[in-house]
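User: Could you write out the 3D structure of this protein bound to protoporphyrin IX containing FE? I've included everything you need below.
Assistant: Certainly. Input first, then the structure.
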Amino acid sequence: MQFAVSTDLELNYFVLEQEGKIFKSFYPKTFIELFGLEDINDQKDAKSRYLKSIIVKVLGPENLKEKLLCNMDEEIRKRLCLWSAKESIIDLKDSISTLFFDVIAKTLISYDPSTTTIDLMRYLKVFISSVFSFPFNFPGTAYHRSLQGRKIVMNLLKTLLSERMKSPRKESKDFLDLLVDELGKENSMLTEKSALNLIFVLLIASFVSSSQTISLATKFLSEDPKILKDLTGKPESNCGEKNYLVFGGGIRYCVGAEFSKMEMAIFLHYFVTKCKWKDVKGGNIVCSPSLEFPDGYHIQVMPKNVRVL
Ligand code: HEM
């Protein structure tokens, strides 16, 4: 087998655009098993398109404007207020993960961490921390830990789904209700299994990449105060679509891209304009293969002015 690695923007854009024509991307078998994404390698099939159309109902522009934008804005301001009022020392990536997860988990399954016995976030983190491990499923191995984390989360989701199927809600419907409605339709392409996997993937996606990106941006801003000064003074520069290849491209373009750009923009806006921060410890980066802060990235958050947010 031969490998080629490309860091060329134009070439990468071309490859992503040609997915399913000249090129075909694929995920390894273990990755598919861990995420339960049986259809992910075949992006062109009807089921894959159908699942995407369901995700768009929650992450698409309509719901973004109607609900998600306000909820996210409110929650971000609340957290920043809390951190800066207490001048707390926080692990930035962890704290942002929890913040973003809380908003999405509430939107998807009306999850409220204060009223449930299972700390969903904890098990999702167990899952994700070992997801790129050697696929040897034996007690004590990282892969086994990852599978255990997934099992606990999936059991909770299964219970939630069957409760909701028994007694569907009439009002304040969330994404789970939408899936229950889909499941009840005649000749529905959705199965209980794919509904559960969909929620699982969205819960993971809600915090992993965005928390990495914001932590990295904060670290760079800490290292270069001039950019921070420019950022608080100048309007945002306009990035072309090709510069946003981080969200993939072509038929695999990230369905959460607009939502993600929105939440990161809101967070960074309030963070740099209303707060200041001091690096306390950590901040070293490794790629294993995803970007990690092995000793965390601990910062102290303080209000910029006396009157905050
Ligand atoms: C900085 C943040 C993010 C980055 C860099 C990112 C990046 C990506 C990339 C590169 C892909 C394509 C993967 C492939 O080629 O198969 C993707 C797919 C996807 N992303 Fe994101 N993403 C982010 C945030 C999110 C968020 C917040 C959500 C949802 C809450 C999300 C949901 C998804 C889903 C469901 C897919 C699969 C789409 C499909 O198979 O068609 N992403 N993302």
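The first helix runs from residue 9 to 17.
User: Perfect, thank you.
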